[in-house]
C-alpha cells in the first residue's frame, strides 16, 4: 500500500494546481462538420466556463475534439492570476504556430481572464491570435468566429452586470461522470489589492436559484453524485426575483423580503436528493455566516469542508491587501466553524508570502495563524504583482525574491506538517467515500473523497465509480489517506 501513497510534492502540486493544470475538450463527433478544440487553464470557474462555451458552440454546429490537429477552431481559456499563468498561455500560442502552418485557416481564439485583461492588445502582441473574448462575451462566440471566417480579427471584452449563462446547459468536459461544477454567480465586488479578478470578471451577480436547482437535478439524473457550487465569493450570493435589481448592493438597498442568500440556496440544493453531495467554493471570511454553518450541519449531504482563504495572518498586511477583515475576525470565524461543525470539518486556505512591505514579524504571524487553525490543505504562493491592481498602483513590490521564496517554503513546510497531523487524526476511523475512479497508480485500487474533501485510496474489491462506500482508514501521508472498504 505504502508505494501507492508516495508523498506528493506540495510545491510542485501548488504550481501545477494554479498555472499548468489543463483540461482539454473531449471527442464528441456527431459528424456535423466543424471541430472545436478547447484548452482550459486556471481555476474551477474557468473549467466551468469552458463547459458553457462548448455548449454554446455545440448549438451552432460545432463538435468538440481532443485532437488539436483535427480542429477548425482552437480556443484557449486563460488565467491571469499570476504572471506564470500568462507565460504558460504565450508558450501554448507559440506551440500553435505549427498547427497554423499545417492548417492556415484554423481560427485561434483566446478566452478568459488574460483576454479580458489585455483585450485587443493581445492581437498586437500575439499575431497568431484571431479572436479575443472576455468571460462575459461567450454568447457572442459564434458571431466572432464568423467574423474571422470573413477575414477579420474579432474582439469582445464587454463586462456585463447581468450575464450568468443561467439558461445554458454546460457540456461536461474531461468529466469523471461523478462530480461536476455548477457556477452560481459571476464576478466579484471585493477589491483585494493583489487580485485581477474584479477587473477580468467584473461586478458580482448571482444566478437564478431555480436554474441552479434544475441543473443539480439534471446532473443527478445523469448519474452524477456530487456538485460543487462555484463563485469567487459564494457567501455574498444574493438573488432577488425582482429582475430590476442588479447585484447584491441594489438588492440589500431595496430591503427586499424574498431574497435568496447563500444559506437558502445551499438548503434548496441539498433538498434535491440525499444521494447528491454538495460542496462549494470559494468562501470569504468577511461574509461567511453562522446561518451557512448551521445549514451545513442540518444536511448530511452538504460536505463538511470549507475553503476559507486567509492570505495572511497579520492584520496590517490584511489591511494593505484590502481583505476587509483582520486576524481576530478570521480566527473568530474559524472558532465558529469548529464550534458548529466540529474538529472533523475540513478547512483549507490560500496563503500569499512576501506581500508588499511584509516584515519578518508579520510573516511569523502567518505561521502562527496556521498553528492556531491547523489547515488540512492550502494553496500557497509568493506575491506576484499583477498589472492594473490596486497593489501595483499603490505599493512597491519590495520584498526580494529569495526572501519571498524562503518565506513561502516555511509556509509550505508548516502546511505539510499540519496536513500530516490532521490526516493522522483520521486513522483508525471509518469514512463515507464517494468513489471517483481508479487510483492514479493502480487499477487494483479505487479513490474518492470523504466529506472533509480528503483523498482516500482503497482496494477495489466489488466496488465501482459513483458508489458511496465506507472505508476504514489505516494509514496516511500528508496528502492521502488509505484503508479498506467495510460493509455499512
Ligand atoms: S475575493 Fe478578493 S481574491 Fe477573491 S476573487 Fe474577489 S478580489 Fe480576488
Count of runs of 4 or more consecutive helical residues: 16
CATH topology of the largest domain: pyruvate-formate lyase- activating enzyme
- Cα Rg: 22 Å
The major beta sheet can be summarized as: 7 strands, mixed
Strand portion, in percent?
15-25%
Distance between the termini: 23 Å
Shape: globular
Under CATH, the homologous superfamily of the largest domain reads: tm_1862 like domain
Helix percent reads: 25-40%
Q: What small molecules does the structure contain?
A: iron/sulfur cluster
CATH class of the largest domain: Alpha Beta
Number of strands: 22
Structural class: alpha/beta
Number of domains: 3
Low-confidence stretches: 1-13
Q: Report the mean per-residue pLDDT as an integer.
A: 92
The appropriate CATH architecture of the largest domain is Alpha-Beta Horseshoe
What does this structure look like?
With 488 residues, the protein is of the alpha/beta class. It folds into 3 domains: 10-156, 3-Layer(aba) Sandwich (Rossmann fold), CATH 3.40.50; 179-424, tm_1862 like domain (pyruvate-formate lyase- activating enzyme); 430-486, OB fold (Dihydrolipoamide Acetyltransferase, E2P) (Beta Barrel), CATH 2.40.50. The chain is built from 16 helices and 22 strands. It has helices at residues 10-20, 44-58, 83-102, 113-118, 121-125, 141-149, 197-201, 209-221, 247-254, 262-270, 290-298, 315-320, 327-341, 360-373, 390-394, 401-424, and strands at residues 22-24, 35-41, 63-64, 73-78, 107-112, 131-133, 154-156, 179-183, 185-186, 205-206, 226-230, 238-239, 260-261, 277-281, 305-307, 346-353, 377-382, 430-438, 445-449, 455-459, 468-476, 481-486. The strands form 6 sheets. Strands 1, 2, 3, 4, 5, 6 and 7 form a 7-stranded mixed beta sheet that branches. It has a 5-stranded mixed barrel with strand order 18-19-20-22-21. A hairpin with a 5-residue loop joins strand 19 (445-449) and strand 20. Helix 14 (360-373) runs parallel beside helix 16. The longest helix has 24 residues, at 401-424. It starts with 9 loop residues before the first helix and ends with a strand. Mean pLDDT is 92; it is low at 1-13. The structure holds iron/sulfur cluster (SF4). The site of iron/sulfur cluster has 9 residues, from helix 7.
